[in-house]
Amino acid sequence: MRHRCPASGARRPPISSPAVNGPFDPWQLDLHGHRVIYRIAGSGPPVVLIHGMVNSSRHWEAVALPLANDYTVIAPDLIGHGDSATPRGDYSLGAHAASIRDLLAVIGIDRATIVGHSLGGGVAMQFFYQFPQRTERLVLVSSGGLGHEVSPLLRGAALPGASALLALAAHRHVGASLVYASERLQRRGSSKAVYLRAIARALKPLERPGAREAFLQTLRSVIDVRGQRVSARDRLHLLDAMPTLIVWGARDNTIPPSHGRATHEAAPGSRFEVLPNAAHFPNLEDPEGLAAVLRDFLETTHPARIDDADWGDVIAHRSPRSRRKRDAAAG
């Protein structure tokens, strides 16, 4: 595996090193003229962690490090998020999926288990749809793209004129006030504290103008004032060919857990896990629980291998051709 252009402060491993063992350090490379930041840790079968909207790769750290004992864990900052570039351009799910494909190709990873949270779940499903031959397993964590409903806050952000309001809301003094209020509520034992912290955490990355514009372009590619505008429900039969884990926080008020249950019912071969101590951000609210269900899934499933010649059969909901040939030979 090859690592290029470490970000400031990161240590460069020997080129012959199979992976980085140690802290979840940021690394940098240029893709098509744009800066892309990613983090990598561990050694073993590759697992890609894709963050959600207004999150970044660093928000996976408490999940990634426990897995890094046995797996190579890669977490990119999506374009327009974290410390990656914020160009004026395409922020669709397909564009994000293609960028991850290119990143993995550059660092020498052919196939991986793809894990996505929220928006990242939509990117993960799109990655599988566009690049099935590169996907070994699929994990959807409080994923977008599986139903219509989404929080009023995100629907409101899709309204015309939201940019100016977002600039005011993302002011650092507003964020500090939200954190202070959440701490007071927590001391009183109020369950609303977690939601104020989530809002403050979401607004923090949007203090930079470029990040706000990238956020709005990303948001409007998947959400409008009526709710989620992109759905994978007509393609869920494709998951029959892919080991799939669906994980949801029981207290999720951003995207309802019913979306996960309905997806599990539509993909009978999938697994469905609910984390009782998490809301919409299991990677931050219950990283130990999320890491545990991920590890169990990785250890108790075999990676899929879908060749290009199989894809027509997968779409047609038939047994893949290569599997039929193996079964015939075994018979």
Report on this model:
- The chain has 331 residues and is an alpha/beta fold.
- The protein is 40% helix and 16% strand.
- It has 13 helices and ten strands.
- It has helices at 61-67, 93-106, 119-130, 152-157, 162-169, 172-187, 193-203, 209-222, 257-266, 282-285, 287-300, 311-315, 321-330; strands at residues 26-31, 34-41, 46-50, 72-76, 112-117, 135-141, 223-224, 227-228, 244-249, 271-275.
- The strands form two sheets. An eight-stranded mixed sheet has the order 1-2-4-3-5-6-9-10, sandwiched between helices. A two-stranded antiparallel ribbon has the order 7-8.
- Helix 1 (61-67) links the parallel strand 3 and strand 4 (72-76).
- Helix 2 packs across helix 3.
- The chain is globular and about 55 Å long.
- 43% of the residues are buried.
Sheet with most strands: strand arrangement: 1-2-4-3-5-6-9-10
Instruction: Tell me, rounded to a whole number, the average pLDDT.
Output: 82
Order of helices and strands: EEEHEHEHEHHHHHEEEHEHHHH
> Which percent band covers the strand fraction?
15-25%
Main sheet record = 8 strands, mixed
User: What's the N-to-C terminus distance?
Assistant: 39 Å
Count of helical stretches: 13
Rg is 20 Å
Number of strands: 10
How helix-rich are the residues, as a percent range? 25-40%
- Shape, per Cα inertia axes: globular
Question: Unreliable stretches, pLDDT < 50, 5 or more residues?
Answer: 1-21
Structure class: alpha/beta
Topology (elements, then pairings):
Blueprint: E1 26-31, E2 34-41, E3 46-50, H1 61-67, E4 72-76, H2 93-106, E5 112-117, H3 119-130, E6 135-141, H4 152-157, H5 162-169, H6 172-187, H7 193-203, H8 209-222, E7 223-224, E8 227-228, E9 244-249, H9 257-266, E10 271-275, H10 282-285, H11 287-300, H12 311-315, H13 321-330
Helix pairs in contact: 1-11, 2-3, 5-8, 6-7
